[in-house]
Amino acid sequence: MNEQKHTVIEIAVTDLLKKAEEYHTKGHRLVQIGCTPLGDRYEINYTFTTAWDFESLRITVHDGDEIPSISGTYWGAFIYENEIHDLFGLSVTDMNIDFQGHLIETRVPTPFKNPPKVTIVSKGGDAQ
Amino acid sequence: MSNQIVVPFGPQHPVLPEPIHLDLVLEDERVVEAVPTIGYVHRGLEKLVEKRDFKDYVLIAERICGICSFTHSVTYCNAIEHIMGIEVPPRAQFIRTIWMEYSRMHSHLLWLGLTADAMGFENLFMNAWRLREEILDDMEATTGGRVIQGSSKVGGIRLDIPDEKLGEMVDHLKSIRPLLEESNRIFTHDQTVRHRMRGLGVLSKEEAWDLGAVGPTARGSGCDMDVRSTGYSAYGELGFKPITFPHGDCLDRCLVRSEEVLAAVDLVERAVAKMPDGPIEEKVKGNPDGEYFAFSEQPRGECMHYVKANGKKNIVRHRVRTPTFTNIPPLVKMLAGIELADVPVVVLTIDPCIGCAER
Q: What residues does Mg(2+) bind to (chain B) (predicted)?
């Protein structure tokens, strides 16, 4: 079995731009940005590589958080950031090309967003 | 002083087999900006993973695309197999590799035909598609399906190819090789093709790397990038070398694909020559728990399947980064500065697969 080496590094959202610039300076290319909904939060992986040793920066955000765009460093990042905005409803700030929610035109808006918490209220009015 | 106008290109257009829309901002006949819109065929397949058993989901992963279908299913299986620590038997790895190379041949021949058609070169179009049928015949004979095979599964493959049939496949490829070489010679040397594509839609090596281009789009700009170099499946035992061209224009992206058809024939021949005996699948016990980023080289370029699982039969997240999706920013760059009449040819040279891009 051939392993493709992949390292995941968890960072704070505030460190994202600085880290992305470091990768760019070192000559890494941006492989992808991908979002994973996990109940009440989202993990976002930013994957970089120079050859075939992959590294992913991982940030954790919640609904309503603002994510800084790395499109100022990696021009092509706009495609992933608009995708995250359109499918998950997350807010990405300062994108170089902002489609305002019109890159991916789905019939149901933000179809991959975490479902809202449902509180069942009994007839008496007490939340369960 | 010229005025800017916006010309909509797509989602329905004679050169587009699938719907993508581009707003082309023009000054006279020259494109100054291209703004893409997708979403016409978004199916939410990644979401479906939360409702399906991870083993059954292989068949859905395969339906992400009607051309790179087999490679999608293998890449998904690779991710699950790595998470679960399943060692796929060598014979299954070799047969997977053979079917992946057949997928590459039929995908590239499809594209070469479409490109010839877009240039108005009807004979070349028909010739490429006739050759593609020869490849599809062998796919159908060994898997039962022309474009959707359903022959990969977690832990190996569903169907073996008897050694006798493997020999027949090699003989068949040898018989059509002169025709493939002739087709390759036309794409390389014909004046019509060269005149239409040389120097058009140029993407430099630095731009290709910086914008995240993959596959023939990157290799046509001189980037030595091909996931097969990592040796996944059986590629590590077949002596693989990426094919690159230096100019970064439409012709070089075309020549990468044309040469890769012949290289795929060589890889299949080497795989058959080295084919090991043994079982074709490993039994799968339990459910996956963990995460893995699996990469493969589809006909259109590097593809990534990210799988995150929590020990249950339903996967938490399946994220697919397809080559077309990452080739959209390079396409936007390529379109800026070209003539409106050249847009269809340039768009075609990234081999856009919108079904893949939208999943």
A: 46, 320
ipTM, 2 dp? 0.85
Looking at residue A29, the DSSP 8-state letter turns out to be: E
Q: Is B87's CB within 8 Å of A74's CB?
A: no
Q: Which residue of A has its CA nearest to B292?
A: A6
Topology of B4-358 in CATH?
A: Cytochrome-c3 Hydrogenase; chain B (1.10.645)
- pLDDT of A51-96, one tens digit each? 888 999 999 999 889 999 999 999 989 989 999 998 888 999 988 8
Instruction: Please state, in angstroms and rounded to a whole number, the distance separating the CA atoms of residues B307 and B301.
Output: 20
A117 band by pLDDT with thresholds 50, 70 and 90: low
Of B209, B317, B319, the CB nearest to A29: B209
Domains, chain A, ordered by start: 1-128 (3.30.460.80)
Is B254 marked within a binding site? no
Helix intervals (H) in chain B: 45-48, 57-62, 69-84, 90-118, 122-143, 163-189, 191-197, 205-211, 216-219, 250-273, 323-335, 343-348, 354-358
Q: Nearest-CA distance from A88 to chain B in Å?
A: 12
- Average pLDDT for consecutive 10-residue bins of chain B (359 residues)? 80 77 86 81 79 86 84 93 92 94 93 88 90 92 86 89 92 93 89 87 91 92 90 87 92 93 94 92 89 92 92 89 89 88 86 76
Say whether B303 counts as a known binding-site residue: no
Q: Which residues of B touch A52 (CB under 8 A)?
A: 227, 229-230
Is B356 marked within a binding site?
yes
In DSSP terms, A48 is beta-bridged to: A30, A55
Condensed to tens digits (0 to 9), the pLDDT of residues A13-61 reads 999 999 999 999 999 999 999 999 988 899 999 999 988 889 999 999 9
The C-alpha of A76 sits at a distance from chain B's nearest C-alpha, in angstroms, of 5
d(CA B338, CA B219): 21
How many CB pairs (< 8 A) connect A and B? 92
Q: Which of residues 238-257 of B touch A (CB under 8 A)?
A: none
Give the C-alpha separation, A113 to A125, whole Å: 29
